[in-house]
Amino acid sequence: MKQVYLDNAATTPMSPTVIDVITDEMANDFGNASSTHTLGRKARNSVETARHTIAQAINAKDQEIIFTSGGSESNNTVIFGVAEMQKAVGRHLITTKIEHESVLKSMQHLEELGYEVTYLDVDRDGHISLDQLREAIRPDTILVSVMAVNNEVGSINPLKDIGQIVKDSQAFFHVDAVQGLGNIDLDVEEMGIDFMSTSAHKINGPKFLGFLYERDGIRLPNRIYGGDQELKRRAGTENVPGIAGFGQAVAEVQAESKADLQAKYTDFQKIILSRLDESGVAYEVNSPLTGLVSHHVLNLRLNGLSTYVLLANLDLAGFAVSGGSACTAGSLTPSHVLTAMFGQDSPKVSESIRISFGRYNTVEEVEAFAAALVKVARKLQDRKRED
Predict the structure, then answer these.
(1) CB count in 10 Å sphere of residue 113
(2) What is the mean pLDDT of residues 181-202?
């Protein structure tokens, strides 16, 4: 039985071209990028070519891109780095209640160290209030960390507006763009972003690789000490094949129209919702369908049905979706995103699934999934009514 993969917000299948680039680098370009001989220079060229491609994609300078192990490392580097660097200026940070765990847990640890964190509320569409942000910024605020696109409901934050607000303060502006890169246009200059975090595996690239954008003129304290790699900002021998593959992945997603991708994902959403409407299945849509939203994520409540029962039945039917963030999906902890949006007593917190599309999904796959979802939901809801 072929497994249909609709969990692209968790990770994405690697692009065949990216695999080719990585394979070629592994076979033919094994030099250390810090070595001065021919093989080392060849490896260095691969790294710098990828760095340039990535910098161009977000309107940054090459020297502002630092390769890391992924979004979690990049987020930690910024949050703890700013806290250390700016502790004489202030000890107040601002984030939102629906950030990724790598942001939230970093902030919670800073609170244990005596820092103060304001967690902004979100509305029922997963958006913050700009007025609340303005009111939250204080003279001792040193960092505002807001994600570009939420990984559970797809809500997009108005980054340009947030950047303008933060610009009028002494704080730095950090964006977790792990779900944004490849799905929306990102411009660090236009949006006034000081730091940006990403992960390669969210855009059909390799796992355990990402980049941190650090605005020129800012120098965070190093978190990893050793050699002088990554412009002396992140020690450790560069993963040349992975970096080359990351550059290829970025080049591929940049070549695609974001508007066309969003239109494709919107059509996928319509197929699923139409089939549910036609079937009489009781459901609710948790993610926004219009406005500031990336349509690669569709979050649904199937009324009365446990998330875990739904996931198990869909998995047995050959369809991979999730109950929310892959970082917490293995636990029984309710979604902190849906809790922030709808309240901890809402049944949506424990009766919802996340369907997330990618560049390689097809209409046929989505049609098949919609039929399976209807079949599973009707069977389980009918059984529940009988009980």
Answers:
(1) 10
(2) 98
